[in-house]
């Protein structure tokens, strides 16, 4: 089995892809450690600030030393230059808010999992043309579970993951999985501004365990 398939299987098994960005290197490391301690084995750091690349390199160092069974990916990759920089830094997979065929080509050439963001059926079709095995539905808070339920039969067999607005709530999660998603992206609803600014790592640990448990029951 290729690494691409192993990572995809890990996302499906976990049912959740946590994601965040923080300027602080130390804070980013503590959040990664907390997520791992709570049971996370696939994680996305996002390229949303000036410290993203150096912080990612530090997280990769910590991962290699302390968490060898964790898959560490990079999100918010919109350009070939960003893709190449983070591939060189050692990312395991790439997530994007858009479809950039040049980024898809880079990932496909090296057999790396590429998860593009889509908002319309046309975009989903384009993503499939560029071999997207998993598609991020974004922004999910705007589109809602009804969108997934409405289009899933048009794209039989395609794997979808909503990101944006997914709640740590049994009813919310059940609605998404019933609509046909295979996993959910979990950002600020899990790793909130308060968690980052106040170092509320115990709260993050408990909420991560809760989210993983609710997802297991919702799938």
UniProtKB/TrEMBL annotation:
Subunit structure, as described in the record: Homotrimer.
Domain of life assignment: Bacteria
Protein name per its UniProtKB record: Ketohydroxyglutarate aldolase
SUPFAM superfamilies noted in UniProt: Aldolase (SSF51569)
Similarity field: Belongs to the KHG/KDPG aldolase family.
InterPro entries in UniProt: Aldlse_KDPG_KHG, Aldolase_TIM
Keywords for the protein's UniProt record, in alphabetical order: Carbohydrate metabolism, Lyase
Keyword Lyase annotated: yes
High-level lineage: Bacteria, Pseudomonadati, Bacteroidota, Sphingobacteriia, Sphingobacteriales
CDD domains the UniProt entry points to: KDPG_aldolase
């Amino acid at each position: 089995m290729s690494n691409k398939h192993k990572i995809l299987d890990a996302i499906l098994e976990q049912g959740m892809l946590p994601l965040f960005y923080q300027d602080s290197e130390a804070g980013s490391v503590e959040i990664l450690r907390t997520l791992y301690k709570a049971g996370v084995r696939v994680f996305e750091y996002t390229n949303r600030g000036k410290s993203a690349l150096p912080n990612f390199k530090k997280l990769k160092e910590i991962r290699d030393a302390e968490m060898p069974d964790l898959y560490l990916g990079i999100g918010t990759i919109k350009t070939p230059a960003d893709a190449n920089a983070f591939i060189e830094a050692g990312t395991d997979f790439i997530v994007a808010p858009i479809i950039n065929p040049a980024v898809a080509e880079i990932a496909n050439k090296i057999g790396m999992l590429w998860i593009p963001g889509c908002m319309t059926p046309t975009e989903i079709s384009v993503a499939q043309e560029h071999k997207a095995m998993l598609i991020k539905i974004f922004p999910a808070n705007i589109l809602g579970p009804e969108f997934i339920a409405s289009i899933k039969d048009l794209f039989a067999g395609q794997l979808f993951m909503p990101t944006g607005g997914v709640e740590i709530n049994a009813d919310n999660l059940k609605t998404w999985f019933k609509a046909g998603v295979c996993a959910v992206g979990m950002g600020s609803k899990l790793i909130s501004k308060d968690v980052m600014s106040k170092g509320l790592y115990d709260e993050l640990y408990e909420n991560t365990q809760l989210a993983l448990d609710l997802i297991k029951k919702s799938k």
